[in-house]
Design goal:
This protein is mainly alpha-helical and about 90 residues long. The chain has 4 helices and no strands.
Length: about 90
């Protein structure tokens, strides 16, 4: 069985940003050794939402939601926009 994913470049950019934010948030939660219930309370979401996050179901999360979560665990986010490299 072959999987064929056709994503537009803007979708790929969004996925990369969401993955990086999620990785940082999950890392902070793990460093604090929180249960999913404790994490949910800190993040202001439900425990099933935390479960989706740690399982990598990032399509369920907007960039805004992940930025909010990052802030709630004490992470500062910054956006850098620059031209793409020339081919």
């Amino acid at each position: 069985m072959s999987l064929n994913f056709n994503f537009a470049s803007q979708d790929i950019a969004s996925m990369k940003l969401r993955a990086e934010l999620a990785r940082k948030v999950i890392g902070r939660l793990r460093a604090r050794k929180l249960t999913q219930t404790q994490a949910a309370e800190i993040l202001g979401v439900t425990q099933p939402r935390v479960s989706n996050l740690v399982r990598g179901r990032l399509g369920l999360f907007s960039l805004d939601a992940l930025v909010d979560m990052a802030d709630r665990v004490g992470l500062r986010t910054r956006m850098v926009v620059r031209p793409k490299r020339s081919s």
